[in-house]
Records
---
Amino acid sequence: MSASVNAVETLGLTKHFGSFVAVDRVDFYIPRGEIFGLLGPNGAGKTTTIRMLCGLLKPSEGRATVLGHDVAREPEEIKRRIGYMSQKFALYNDLTALENIRFYAEVYGVARAERAERVADLIAMAGLEDHAGVLTRSLSGAWRQRLALACAIVHRPPMLFLDEATAGVDPVSRREFWDLIYSMAAEGTSVLATTHYMDEAEYCNTIGMMYQGQLIAVASPDTLKDKLPGMLLQIDCDQPAAAERLVDGLPGVIDAAVHGVWLHAMVRDAGVIASVRNAITGGGYPVRSIEETLPSLEDVFITMVAQRRGAEAAPDAGTGD
Ligand SMILES: Nc1ncnc2c1ncn2[C@@H]1O[C@H](COP(=O)(O)OP(=O)(O)O)[C@@H](O)[C@H]1O
Ligand SMILES: [Mg+2]
């Protein structure tokens, strides 16, 4: 075991299923005590990456260490030291919340002398005091998810993997859940989390954007936003979905996408605004305003994927216009 400062390190980490490449030469690291967010659409390879890091799936190529242990050679060492919470985390419906935590304390080998105090701490941390005696089957989704987190960390793992741990949970509960994760990280726990929710990415020190098995960008949320090419326009017009089709593909428009009641367009520079306005009004849709706006991580992701697709479609393109 090395005295690596990083909780996770991967080098060319790859997983094939037959001829299909689910994870494609992924390189990243997570310093101890940091939260790394893996973002990407369904099928991007996030869960497969996590399963390799948890020692549940052998890499096809490349290597990775978790807490200094090699995932291929020492999976058992890793399993004992990590917490892993997926959407399918197994809670026992016929046990109360308290009994579930006690059960996992036993499974994870928490010393008998420490169990009572540990369980009480977790009940308090998860805010489950009023639900401790409730049968798990009667708990709402948000409470079940807090309970699952308490169970997943009952052995105080220094490394926590969260795979869509907040899927299907309402925004307020998701925020509270992340406050818990945040305080754990502040006390030194390292976290790798996958999510579909872009707002959750803001809680992460570092974001990895995954697409078709590859990590297409790794950076802090702010850096990712700064790296966006050009400027982002927020367009208030009639029928934004129809306007999107008019704007997409115009010279200087990198990408356009409906964003709530607006159309968002990433453009090369301010010189493109006039042609965007003309295209929409020319199509018969009145434009009320076009303003520059700050990108969200969702905008970043959409733009990066669009650039990627553009590069794939025109691999031999020169420096462009
Ligand atoms: N055991 C498996 N056998 C074959 N294909 C798989 C297997 N597990 C995952 N895949 C495929 O690998 C790709 C990545 O899956 P996954 O890692 O679950 O993505 P994500 O978690 O980002 O949604 C998907 O196309 C999925 O169908
Ligand atoms: Mg997944």
---
Amino acid sequence: MKEAASDVAIIGLPESGKTTLLAALWHMVREKGACTRLTFAGLSQGNYEHLNSLAKRWRSGKRQQRTQLAGTKAVSMRLNDSLGRTVEVSFPDSPGEEFSRMWERRELDESMRATLLAPAIVLVVNGDKIRFPAWIAERNAIQRGLGIPPEVSDVVDWRAELAPTQVQVVELLQFLMSGILDAGPRRLAVLITAWDVVQEDGMNPEEVLSVHLPLLDQYLRNGRDSWTWRVWGLSAQGGAYEDADSGEILPETEALREISRPSDRIKVIDGEVSSTDITAPLDWLIS
Ligand SMILES: Nc1nc2c(ncn2[C@@H]2O[C@H](COP(=O)(O)OP(=O)(O)OP(=O)(O)O)[C@@H](O)[C@H]2O)c(=O)[nH]1
Ligand SMILES: [Mg+2]
């Protein structure tokens, strides 16, 4: 007999890799013979045409289009584990701006509220697009000291959207643990995406978290909020995609297209171990 469905919500700032993750996940769970811990049980929300077109783009090595506010297509799929338990995985598949807005204005879109009450969260952070802290006051002082007039200075006034990635992400997690979104203790899988780029530093995912996102690392380690968490590296593409709009051709993208089974492009890094099972973090979330 099946136990009650668990729920997982996927969240992440703009361009963190949510749609690419959805495309690769859809490909994997729909591909015959793919070896994944969780297998496809059904689609609760969303349509096959939309998902198939995301997966088709993914297979042909093309970047996903930026998710637009209008025409947002929420997706919920049911996956089964080996014990017959069902997990319902929900992608608001809203643009990341929706999550930025939560941090910038402390506003929450009503339609996202139910999804964000999920007992388990996947937080997607693009390891190739981490915005590091910049000491604006210091840079202003240096430019003034050098006599650079303000009109040619490259220092801009602070705006919430310019805050470092880790500040935005920690605030987002705190938001999920307070007020109307407080759903008690929860599980959290942090996925550091674009791992094919990040891996050049030679660190494992925990090390990347502590070196490149130390505020997030400390927030999670110190248990200020009740997250039971783990971190993975994820390359849902397997490598860099060329910018087709500018006519770019990248040997790296070509090489990816030549891999005979597209699912072999995927890398999921758990500590020092690499696999192609993109469902592994989801399986941990419900274990
Ligand atoms: N190198 C590399 N780049 C990736 C990978 N996954 C995603 N990206 C890139 O990251 C950027 C954002 O990916 P999306 O999947 O569109 O991100 P998103 O979170 O859906 O973005 P919004 O919908 O705009 O919020 C794109 O330029 C992708 O090509 C990866 O595994 N490797
Ligand atoms: Mg998207």
---
Amino acid sequence: MNKRISFAGPSITDREIDSVMDALKNGWYENYDMHVKKLEKTFADYLGVKYALATHCCTQALHLACAAIGLKEGDEVIVTDFSWVATAYAVAYTGAKCVFADIEPETWTIDPDCLRKAITEKTRAIMLVHTFGHPAGMDEIMKIAKENGLYVIEDAAPALGATYKGRKVGTFGDVACFSFQGAKMAVSGEGGILVTDNEEIYERAKLLSSMGRTDSEAVFWSDMLGYQYTMGNLAASLALSQLLRVEELMKIKRDIFGWYEQGLSSAPGIRLVKEKEGCKSNYCYPSLLLTDEIVADRDEIISGLKALNIHCRPAFPRMSRFPVFEQRYENPVAALVERRGISLPSAANLNKRDVSFVCESIKRLIG
Ligand SMILES: Cc1ncc(COP(=O)(O)O)c(C=O)c1O
């Protein structure tokens, strides 16, 4: 069997090993949160925002973001229909209703026109995703939010390093969240971080992330129903060492996408998801859509690739179809991507020859 071509996986160097060893040796006693604090400060500085709060995973950061802006039962939040379910469940945890909007065919990010049409008098916020590292259309989204007095939460889980018109994603909305889960741009095993310029959102998220503990009436006193969502030094030390290599990690992903572009551009019926003009994607998960020119079934193609030890992912099923949500939506673009979209391997250990093998195998399988 040939080398496993993994869907995703990190680049780990001596820098990461040294950083984790440092946390293991020194991150205790009076230094119990030293690496966490350093990660938060470095992350905030990197993005150019005032506050960052590290969490055990991005789902928790998203939940804190939703709770910190005060979402509750009776509120509506417009959510992209195409994402990992954490995006929508974070909203649902607060009791607010998810109203699912369709996506743009070019970037698979929320379509601003659909978003606008979904607004009602109950709408309180927009939950967008910079899907697979492609920036959402922030000019239009922020304009809609401003006109309608809505909060904007950026789910930037896979989008570290991506920019929209020269500005880093995660700096547009009221609050944004990134993931350090093992398949993301920068990893810490599991991990997440919430960022904001809004002091009130930050303070509330921070309190909620540590069990609502205020010590106000007594040591260990808690003033609200909070959660244990904080990150520890070991994970933070790994995330930090990866963050310090973000440009290098992004280059790895962008090179891989460039090889896919070379290898698949001549293939009929394949539409690669490419960055829009003025945007820089981190190409966290290079993806393609099979057009009608290709008769082969998407899942059969993925199985055929798996038999060659090439590990792809089908596109997400639309979240609005999950039993948790009561209302059904058509959202035709997301419905098409759900059926015909594939995310390609982009693990950091792939070389040009591996990607070329993937491209040739895809071309063979689609006939
Ligand atoms: C768009 C999106 N949002 C949220 C998450 C959740 O991140 P985590 O696994 O760190 O909780 C993910 C993870 O895959 C994601 O892709």
